[in-house]
Design goal:
six-stranded antiparallel β-sheet; alpha+beta; seven-stranded antiparallel β-sheet; 479 residues; single chain
């Protein structure tokens, strides 16, 4: 077996039959233009530059691959994955099947997983045991979450307790000149249909923010040492501040709120452009899948629904559909929770279906909102609340109590012109409205601020839902 000083271009033979090629030294790389990679293409880990300008090989480059493999065999899976990105040599060593087979056997070892190779054709492909270990980890975690979250709320069709996920919500802020900062959430509040996640500063100036990325980061179950150290990041949202839609939401004496569609709120100190905090409102529908099955670079996409029959009766098909409305703040307080069992449906034009849950002329359907409509914020050591702002969550359920259209967004109560009609009851208060448009659908709430106590009365609620979203659920409960 060649020693560590057998020449710059020599390789070392691995006991399993594979050879590991070392990078050439600096002199050979500079003098042989037709040879292997140049010095600039090899990793900086192997070479250091002295004060005189000469390049020297570090002690790691002098060690045989057998010794390096022995050292790497003491690392946990998370460290092995990280060190595999150092350079080509460590990438080859850290993906060695002998090391990963030992790790796999220590965690999930069974008689069926024995490595018995009788012929060259039966030899596993390079990286087989590493891929098998990662798939086993992912499958075990998904099975665990499915077992814990299989019980759903019959009213919302959503899991009872999504906080059992043990997820850390990470926000990555990219600035215009390329710098990035990532930080976990400071606090989160779980509601019946949504999760509100908050991040406190320090953040850059609002004008300097180029993009926002939201990831769900999860570490494995505590019963497994390896899984505790393995972290998986699944992208939930990625927004470009230059091309995204942003609008003013509200303000108080200290903070001005900016709504960045679809789900972000950015709090900016008034009189400055410094960002104080960031909030995000996430609907719990498919939140488990989005947190587990996405990748660090792209979010999870729901599989397409199977094609359905195109002939159906609108009124008959929508019987059994229900609507869940939730208005809440950001500190755990709820404004109201309403459940509508009767929805008046009619074609809305442009491939939309109009659903009326509360009609303006029917006084028996009007609902009083007893909670305070405000959005609390906290940026240590200060805190406050912006009036007439809250989070709006809508969940449309089919006859089998399966969510078919969901909305979770910040909302602001804006004054509108008074409604005048001889059939409409007159409450003598200030009319306000909440409007939201996203993904082809629209939501409109009409409210009246009662002059007696300042509470709001919901007098109209109309949805315009995309027909393609409803089509897989139309008539399904009558089959």
């Amino acid at each position: 077996m060649p020693g560590p000083c057998s020449g710059p271009g020599s390789g070392s033979e691995h006991p399993g039959g594979r050879s590991f090629q070392r990078p050439l030294n600096a002199a050979a790389s500079r003098t042989d233009p037709g040879g292997p990679q140049s010095l600039t293409e090899t990793s900086e880990t192997h070479c250091t530059r002295t004060d005189t300008g000469t390049t020297q090989i570090t002690c790691l480059d002098m060690l045989p691959p057998e010794v390096l493999l022995k050292i790497l065999s003491h690392l946990d899976p998370h460290s092995l994955i990280c060190i595999s990105h150092v350079n080509k040599l460590f990438h080859q060593l850290a993906n060695d099947d002998v090391v990963w087979h030992r790790i796999y056997m220590s965690e999930f070892g069974t008689s069926k997983a024995r490595w018995s190779v009788s012929t060259v054709e039966e030899r596993p492909l390079q990286g087989h045991w590493r891929k098998r270990y990662l798939w086993q980890v992912a499958g075990q975690e998904v099975d665990t979450w499915r077992e814990e979250l299989r019980h759903t709320n019959p009213s919302t069709g959503l899991p009872w307790e999504t906080r059992q996920l043990g997820v850390s919500w990470e926000l990555t802020v990219s600035q215009s000149w390329g710098s990035r900062q990532t930080q976990p959430h400071s606090h989160a509040h779980y509601y019946e249909s949504t999760v509100v996640v908050c991040w406190s500063g320090p953040f850059p100036h609002y004008q300097h923010i180029h993009s926002l990325q939201l990831h769900a980061s999860h570490r494995g179950a505590p019963r497994s040492t390896a899984l505790r150290k393995t972290s998986w990041r699944s992208m939930l949202l990625k927004l470009d501040m230059k091309t995204g839609t942003a609008r003013h939401l509200g303000k108080d004496r200290l903070i001005s709120l900016v709504h960045v569609a679809p789900s972000f709120i950015i709090g900016i100190w008034r009189g400055h452009s410094q960002v104080a905090f960031v909030m995000a409102c996430l609907h719990q529908h498919l939140l488990v899948e989005r947190s587990l099955l996405g990748s660090p670079a792209s979010p999870y996409s729901e599989p397409p629904a199977p094609p359905q029959a195109t002939r159906w009766d609108l009124e008959l098909s929508l019987r059994g559909f229900t609507l869940r409305l939730l208005l809440h703040g950001s500190d755990g307080a709820e404004v109201t929770t309403l459940h509508f069992h009767r929805l008046l449906a009619r074609p809305g034009g442009a491939q939309l279906v109009e659903l009326q849950a509360v009609q303006r002329w029917d006084q028996s359907q009007h609902q009083l909102l007893t909670g305070a409509v405000q959005l609390a914020w906290r940026a240590e050591p200060l805190e406050g609340a912006v009036q007439n702002c809250c989070f709006l969550a809508l969940t449309l359920l089919d006859g089998w109590r399966r969510p078919c259209w969901c909305v979770a967004t910040p909302a602001c109560l804006r004054p509108v012109a008074a409604w005048r009609h001889h059939r409409w009851p007159d409450y003598g208060g200030e009319p306000v409205a909440v409007e939201h448009s996203d993904g082809g659908g629209r939501v409109e709430l009409q409210l009246v601020r009662l002059p007696e106590d300042g509470h709001f009365l919901l007098v109209a609620l109309t949805l315009h839902v995309p027909l393609d979203t409803l089509r897989p659920h139309l008539g399904d409960q009558h089959r």
